[in-house]
Design a protein that fits this description.
This protein has 3 domains: 38-155, ATP-grasp fold, B domain (D-amino Acid Aminotransferase, Chain A, domain 1), CATH 3.30.470; 163-259, 2-Layer Sandwich (Glycoprotein, Type 4 Pilin), CATH 3.30.700; 273-348, RNA polymerase II/Efflux pump adaptor protein, barrel-sandwich hybrid domain (OB fold (Dihydrolipoamide Acetyltransferase, E2P), Beta Barrel). The protein contains 9 helices and 25 strands. It has helices at 3-10, 14-22, 103-115, 126-133, 136-139, 147-150, 152-155, 163-174, 261-271, and strands spanning 39-46, 48-49, 55-56, 59-60, 63-65, 73-77, 84-85, 92-100, 118-120, 184-186, 195-202, 205-211, 217-219, 223-227, 232-240, 243-248, 251-257, 275-277, 282-287, 294-295, 300-306, 309-314, 319-324, 331-332, 337-343. The N and C termini lie far apart (58 Å). Helix 3 (103-115) runs antiparallel to helix 4 (126-133).
């Protein structure tokens, strides 16, 4: 079992014991003298994206707020805000360990601690861990190797947020900087209401937000409070450029401010141009094709390795490899173009 879990339920510092024994001292206690008490869980927080088949995530930790610790909540970590998560090491960010009198209380404490663990800049498995900790089968210890596959619809889906609340809170945060390039300050007339409107994207859909004095809420340094007719809703937040990350009761949500539509055209045009890009930072360890080679949809093109995991890049469509921009052994950044694939139209075949 993981040593922090053992230490929580026994009250024994195993690392201190190892040092004492290595120094020639006797074991402090015999096995029969060690008593078990309560229940403990350890959650490993990883730099990985459960929604993308647990693909490793690299980048810089822009924002990090951890739950408060005490004798029953422990965090083992060596990662700080502004640290870079590279593709060369294990993806583990931290171990979060909790203790309570019984399994039910320990799981509830684990869920709350995970809810209070706010991290932005890379994808993590925090929301996945919360869902697993609150899964009935897990709570009842009905455990088996296929539990994730069995409950994948629940475990591997975007956080079930209240869209109206998320958009309203994101609007409150964005409204703190009305000079923003892509917002519009309207109704600037005497005796009339001042409004700030935004075009944003949430979960792939575009929305138009309007924030005015009737939008009840307050924004502090890293928290936003929304007052609805029924309740007060509080969330942590972090703004990075034109993206607002909210840490709600249900998990993490990201809302992005939209730039003018001409940018959307450029992005859409690029997506259809045959660019095959790296899914993550890593090392190109294999290239299975050469320039001029004809490939079919699904054929393996390249192999990228990051954090001890290999990711096969496949052809999205039938086509001809036009150009290859990297060599085996090169380091590649996420989203950089690796090769160009000229699609083959059905009429040409």
């Amino acid at each position: 079992v993981e040593h922090p879990v053992t230490e929580m339920v026994t009250g024994v510092d195993l690392v201190a014991w190892q040092l004492k024994v290595a120094a020639g001292q006797p074991m402090p206690l015999l096995q029969a003298q060690i008593k078990l008490q309560g229940h403990a869980f350890e959650a490993r927080i990883y730099a990985e994206d459960p929604l993308q088949d647990f693909q490793p995530s690299t980048g810089t930790i822009n924002h990090l707020r951890q739950p408060p610790t005490d004798q029953h909540i422990r965090i083992d970590t060596g990662v700080l805000e502004s640290d870079a998560i590279s593709p060369f090491y294990d993806p583990m960010i931290a171990k979060l360990i909790v203790w309570a009198e019984d399994r039910t209380q320990a799981l509830a404490k684990l869920d709350l601690a995970l809810q209070q663990y706010h991290l932005q800049g890379i994808a993590t498995n925090i929301d996945f861990l919360r869902r697993l900790a609150t899964l009935d089968d897990f709570a009842q210890a009905k455990l088996h190797t296929g539990i994730i596959e069995q409950h994948q619809e629940l475990l591997l889906s975007p956080s079930p947020q209240d869209q109206h609340q998320v958009l309203a809170m994101a609007g409150l945060v964005l409204a703190q900087t009305p000079q923003q390039q892509f917002s519009q300050l309207t109704a600037m007339r005497l005796n009339q209401t001042q409004q700030i409107t935004f075009n944003v994207n949430y979960l792939g859909e575009d929305h138009r937000l309007c924030i005015d004095p009737t939008t009840a809420g307050t924004v502090t340094q890293d928290q936003v409070l929304l007052q609805t007719p029924q309740q007060q809703v509080k969330a942590g937040y972090y703004r990075h450029g034109d993206c607002v990350t909210l840490f709600t009761h249900n998990g993490r949500a990201e809302v992005s401010l939209l730039s003018p539509s001409v940018d959307d055209y450029s992005i859409s045009n690029e997506a259809d141009s045959g660019s095959i890009c790296a899914p993550m930072n890593g090392s190109l360890i294999a290239c299975m094709v050469s320039a001029g080679q004809v490939v079919a949809a699904g054929d393996a093109l390249m192999l990228v390795e990051a954090m001890k995991m290999e990711h096969t890049i496949t052809a999205p469509t039938d086509g001809t490899v036009d150009e290859i921009y990297f060599n085996v052994g090169d380091l590649v950044s996420a989203d950089v173009q690796l090769l160009h694939l000229q699609p083959i139209n059905v009429e040409e075949q």
